[in-house]
Design brief:
The chain is mainly alpha-helical. It has one domain (16-176): Tetracycline Repressor, domain 2 (Orthogonal Bundle), CATH 1.10.357.10. The protein is built from 9 helices and no strands. The protein starts with 15 loop residues before the first helix and ends in a 19-residue tail after the last helix. The model has no long low-confidence stretch (mean pLDDT 86).
Length: 195
């Protein structure tokens, strides 16, 4: 029972985990609506809004859950940092592509959630373990994160062709070039022959 002026709390049968599970089971995040999600959960539309602030809030919960699943629980070390990043990338591959619409969504500009910063901090720590200075580790994170998510988004949309491209070859090429060690001279164009 609630007192005067107090808003009732969320229904007991709802939880962050239940919302994420129902949203992931919906089949496609791009077409998921709050009304469909509420029906799937067996609650009213308004009850769902007590837990999340609309569709974006649901996507935020999904992002946090997926990032928690893909970031390895052990810390990267100087001996394993590249393999550690490989495990993270393969987990992202498996989780993101198993969630229809997710890789495509995050490959487009979007606001970042707690999950983004969790992943960024973990990847920066891996590049630091690999010997990169703080600035290079941050730049390497940007390259790693952007290229990984863009590749997965394109793969999900089949923009890369009918047959899936080999993720192992992509990942090997990406990790061989990282971390960034020295900043090149940006903004300068190579001289033309004869200048």
């Amino acid at each position: 029972m609630t007192g005067p002026g107090k808003r009732p709390g969320p229904p007991a049968r709802l939880s962050r985990g239940a919302i994420v599970e129902a949203a992931l089971a919906s089949g496609d995040l791009e077409s998921l609506s709050m009304r469909q999600l509420a029906a799937r959960l067996g609650v009213s539309h308004s009850a769902l809004y007590r837990w999340v602030q609309g569709r974006e809030g649901v996507i935020d919960l999904i992002s946090e859950t997926l990032i928690d699943r893909i970031v390895p629980t052990d810390a990267p070390t100087p001996d394993n940092w590249r393999a550690w990043l490989g495990r993270l990338a393969w987990a992202a591959h498996d989780e993101f592509l198993a969630t229809p619409g997710y890789a495509t969504r995050i490959s487009r500009p979007h606001r970042h959630t707690r999950g983004f910063f969790t992943m960024r901090d973990a990847v920066v720590a891996a590049f630091r373990a690999g010997g990169a200075d703080p600035e290079s580790a941050e730049q390497s994170w940007y390259v790693f994160g952007t290229v990984l998510v863009t590749w997965l988004g394109a793969q999900e949309q089949r923009l890369l062709g009918d047959a899936p491209l080999r993720f192992d070859l992509f990942l090997d090429s990406l990790l061989r070039g990282l971390p960034v060690r020295e900043a090149p001279e940006y903004g300068t164009r190579p001289s033309a022959v004869g200048e």
